[in-house]
Specification:
Radius of gyration: 22 Å
Structural class: mainly alpha
Shape: rod-shaped
Number of strands: 0
Number of helices: 8
Strand content: under 5%
Length: 120
C-alpha cells in the first residue's frame, strides 16, 4: 500500500485517487493503520466524492433490499409460497416501484392478480 501511495503522490493526475486507495484499504486494514500509512485523518476520505457516492449507493441498495424483503413477506403471508420468478423480478424494481407494489400486494385478492400488475 505504501508503494501504491508513493506512486499516486508522484503523479499529478493520479494524486486525486489517494482517497480512493484509502477507502479500499479500509476494507482490509484497520482504520488507524490506514490513517498512519496515509498520514491524514479519515475525515478527508469521508468528504471525497468517491466515498459519498459509494455511501449513497449503499444506502439506496439497503433501502431497496429492505422494502423488497417486506413485500415478499406480505405476499407470503397473504398467498403462501410465491414463485421464484416473482422474487427475481422484484429485485430489479426501484424503491418507489416496490412501494407501489406493496400497496398492490395489500389490495389484490390473489397472487395471480398481483403477478399481472407486476407484469405491466
Amino acid at each position: 500500500m505504501q508503494r501504491a501511495l508513493q506512486a499516486l503522490r508522484a503523479d499529478a493526475q493520479l494524486n486525486e485517487l489517494e482517497s480512493l486507495l484509502a477507502f479500499f484499504a479500509s476494507f482490509v486494514l484497520d482504520t488507524p493503520l490506514v490513517q498512519q500509512i496515509m498520514r491524514w485523518d479519515m475525515a478527508v476520505l469521508r468528504e471525497s466524492p468517491w466515498y459519498q457516492e459509494i455511501e449513497q449507493r449503499g444506502i439506496q441498495l439497503g433501502l431497496q433490499q429492505g422494502v423488497q424483503r417486506q413485500l415478499v413477506r406480505v405476499l407470503r403471508r397473504r398467498f403462501g409460497e410465491i414463485p421464484h420468478e416473482v422474487e427475481a423480478r422484484l429485485e430489479s424494481e426501484s424503491v418507489e416501484q416496490l412501494e407501489t407494489l406493496m400497496d398492490s400486494a395489500i389490495a389484490v385478492s390473489s397472487l395471480d392478480e398481483f403477478v399481472s400488475i407486476l407484469a405491466t
